[in-house]
Amino acid sequence: MSELKVGIDRVGFYTPRLYLEMTDLALARGEDPAKYHVGIGQDKQAVIPPTQDVVTMAANAATQILRPEDRSRIKMVLFGTESGVDNSKATAVYLAHLLNLAADTRAIELKQACYGATAGLQLAADYVRAHPDALVLVIGADIARYGLRTPGEVTQGGGAVAMLVSADPQIMALDAQSAYHTADVMDFWRPLDRTEALVDGRYSTNVYLDFFKQTWTAYQQQTGRTIADFAALAFHLPFTKMGRKGLRQVLPEASAAHQQELTAAFEASQLDNRNVGNLYTGSLYLSLLSLWRHGDLRAGDRIGCFSYGSGAEGEFYSGVLQPDYQRGFDDAALTTLLADRRAVSVAEYEELFQQQLPNNGQDVQLAVGADSAPYYLAGRQHQQRQYRHRMEA
């Protein structure tokens, strides 16, 4: 009997239709644009209007990949985020309701900085291995906020990646082995009284690189595989230069020709992240999607994935591309989504940044007319967020 394949069957992605040019931000902050484009590796940054939060963005991503017959087969929704909207109720519960999923669906929110979606993916894979007829919806959705005129401002962004995990997946079958590492590290955190994160940028970069080397080494020891077994390595990309530094750590292990192939694959994997910014929990999975969309890949290629969440937890795992992997996502729709966004001025970006729902609990009615997304946040009444589906408005 052949081993059951389990992995990522379909992927959807959503980011709002507004962005900020990094050249404009650099000039407004008195910086050389090359510092942002080359030194950080970012070209555009998603701007999140107050009518979108992680729940609505997740719904807008998930609705791209769900078919009517899927809803009865989805047995779990695992929502990785560090931008939750409630300290008790899971974002996954709101999402399951918006998507009209069955009542016998587990709906759980997972939090460990940018690692949450990877925890969800691994839990989903284990569940499907035990229940091959089931589907699990895994979400990585976040809004990266560091504050205006802060060192981390250039690494903001936001969006959502939705993944359907199944047996006999279309896109990528996950290998059962992975290596992970956890340590209590204060490189990045967000206290309960803050909406913006605190970060020690240089220290966080060093921890990221150290965790990558530790998990990469442990993975090789577990599996006996070497860098020669990989067609590509995909990284968590809070900014694209971070992943480039990680790749450079291990490139000397590859032949000269293979180094060129791995470098070309990395360039493909960071294209979409350069133009969206930091997705926190969704960052690795936008990187993977970008690799699948833009890379020179073929069925049977093994892809290595490094996930990192500050605080800190890292994991290296791998998967094998399937023959119909390009049918698992809508490349044309994703290209259109990114191309049709509207650039905002620095002044408009700053205004939108300040327009998040206030923490005073007062009723708020948001101006929703400019938001064309299927799912949106209409405001707050009696301390409850008011989510809407445009088809039902």
UniProtKB/TrEMBL annotation:
Pfam families (alphabetical): HMG_CoA_synt_C, HMG_CoA_synt_N
Record keywords: Acyltransferase, Transferase
CDD domains in the cross-refs: init_cond_enzymes (cd00827)
Domain Hydroxymethylglutaryl-coenzyme A synthase N-terminal: 5-168
Entry keyword annotation includes Transferase: yes
EC number(s) per entry: 2.3.3.10
Active-site residue numbers: E82 (proton donor/acceptor), C114 (acyl-thioester intermediate), H236 (proton donor/acceptor)
Residues annotated to bind (3S)-3-hydroxy-3-methylglutaryl-CoA: D32, Y146, K245, N278
Residue span, Hydroxymethylglutaryl-coenzyme A synthase C-terminal domain: 178-261, 262-355
GO term, biological process aspect, one: acetyl-CoA metabolic process
InterPro entries per the UniProt record, alphabetical: HMG_CoA_synt_C_dom, HMG_CoA_synth_N, HMG_CoA_synthase_prok, Thiolase-like
GO molecular function list: hydroxymethylglutaryl-CoA synthase activity
Record-stated family: Belongs to the thiolase-like superfamily. HMG-CoA synthase family.
Protein name: Hydroxymethylglutaryl-CoA synthase
